[in-house]
């Protein structure tokens, strides 16, 4: 025998507010409309986003590239500060800039938000940030989904994820097959922590007893503002670099989870050795602060955080100066970080770790040497 409820149980009584979801869609419509491209077919609200791919028929051998990712525990900072309009840049950066690594142009993206309770204004702020970032990257936001998960997530909790698709000519695919002995590595500055390593960062901050509203002189703003700094979007500047007349970029690497050495090793062929020099840059203050507060070993922090390098490009030595000029013209600081040689003739420092491949890739070897300049 079962106990009957005192009153009928509705979807709303179970914790799902369909009307709130509809209000969120109304609030986000205008920002999503701006994140478009001429190839988009249809509008917001369809069961699937549609994209006119007829231009691909004019390509010799079009290769589709796809990527999916989330923001990770950085969302906890946004939730704690009740500021949700920048987390979308972190999502878009983590997704579309992975596509650029192979030389592809990202075309369109979809997003997914899971939350304990749909608060229309909060969902609209999140999607608004995603749309603005897509607009900056030249990517169409063709659809998405917001799911209410009462009982699984607390009322003010949410997580975000997304996926994107791009295209590149087969003959133009970047990667290990292009890297040559004598190439150099050019670094592109990050905007800060980006979206990796926040489990470490949050643990360090909590252990130190620092509040997010604490003003930090070295940052020139509060800790929370520093930690919530959006991920830089590299898509358009890197496409400009790749497509510039006379440029022959061989490989790109997005410096995300795993750090600089491991991510560069993924795009080097086996038998190649990259030597990177710490003396060529000073990491922004936030990296030193996290390291000192948590007494984090250098090897561990370099495997976890980007240390101020958001992307690297591998290209012929005689193109390095022009590559840096193109990046600087896009507002991204760039510098010569190191060189690539055949491992059999490389000078390997005996007191520094050599990283070989990463994430299942049997790639090349990378060694980071020297010390960062002190300020």
UniProtKB/TrEMBL annotation:
SUPFAM superfamilies: PurM C-terminal domain-like (SSF56042), PurM N-terminal domain-like (SSF55326). One of its GO terms (cellular component) is cytosol. Its main location: cytoplasm. InterPro entries: PurM-like_C_dom, PurM-like_C_sf, PurM-like_N, PurM-like_N_sf, PurM_cligase. Gene3D superfamilies: PurM-like C-terminal domain, PurM-like, N-terminal domain. GO terms for biological process: 'de novo' IMP biosynthetic process; adenine biosynthetic process. Pfam families: AIRS (PF00586), AIRS_C (PF02769). GO terms for molecular function: ATP binding; phosphoribosylamine-glycine ligase activity; phosphoribosylformylglycinamidine cyclo-ligase activity. Keywords: ATP-binding, Cytoplasm, Ligase, Nucleotide-binding, Purine biosynthesis. Belongs to the AIR synthase family. This is Phosphoribosylformylglycinamidine cyclo-ligase. It comes from Intrasporangium oryzae NRRL B-24470. The gene is purM.
């Amino acid at each position: 025998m079962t106990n009957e409820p005192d009153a009928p149980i509705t979807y709303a009584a179970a914790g799902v507010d369909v009307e709130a979801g509809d209000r969120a869609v109304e609030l986000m419509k205008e920002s999503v409309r701006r994140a478009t491209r001429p190839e988009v077919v249809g509008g917001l609200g369809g069961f699937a986003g549609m994209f006119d791919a007829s231009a691909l028929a004019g390509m010799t051998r079009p290769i589709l590239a796809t990527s999916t990712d989330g923001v990770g525990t950085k969302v906890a900072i946004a939730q704690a500060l009740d500021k949700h309009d920048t987390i979308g840049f972190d999502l878009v950066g983590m997704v579309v800039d992975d596509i650029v690594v192979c030389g592809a142009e990202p075309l369109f993206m979809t997003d997914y938000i899971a939350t304990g309770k749909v608060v229309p204004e909060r969902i609209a702020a999140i999607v608004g940030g995603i749309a603005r970032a897509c607009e900056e990257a030249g990517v169409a936001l063709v659809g998405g989904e917001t799911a209410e998960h009462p009982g699984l997530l607390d009322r003010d909790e949410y997580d975000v994820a997304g996926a994107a698709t791009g295209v590149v000519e087969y003959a133009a695919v970047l990667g290990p097959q292009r890297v040559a002995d004598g190439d150099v590595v050019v670094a592109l500055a990050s905007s800060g922590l980006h979206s990796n390593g926040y489990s470490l960062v949050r643990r360090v901050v909590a252990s130190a007893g620092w509040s997010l509203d604490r003003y930090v002189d070295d940052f020139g703003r509060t800790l929370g503002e520093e930690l919530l700094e959006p991920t830089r979007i590299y898509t358009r500047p890197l496409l400009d670099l790749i497509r510039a007349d006379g440029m022959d970029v061989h490989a790109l690497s997005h410096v995300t989870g795993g750090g600089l050495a491991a991510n560069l090793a993924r795009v080097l062929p086996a038998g190649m050795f990259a030597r990177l020099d710490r003396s060529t840059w000073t990491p922004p203050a936030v990296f030193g602060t996290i390291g000192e507060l948590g007494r984090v070993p250098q090897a561990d922090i370099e495997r976890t955080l980007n240390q101020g390098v958001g992307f690297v490009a591998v290209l012929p030595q005689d193109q390095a100066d022009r590559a840096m000029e193109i990046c600087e013209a896009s507002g991204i600081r760039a510098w010569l970080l190191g060189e690539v040689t055949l491992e059999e003739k490389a000078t390997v420092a005996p007191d520094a770790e050599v990283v070989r491949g990463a994430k299942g890739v049997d790639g090349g070897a990378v060694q980071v040497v020297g010390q960062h300049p002190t300020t």
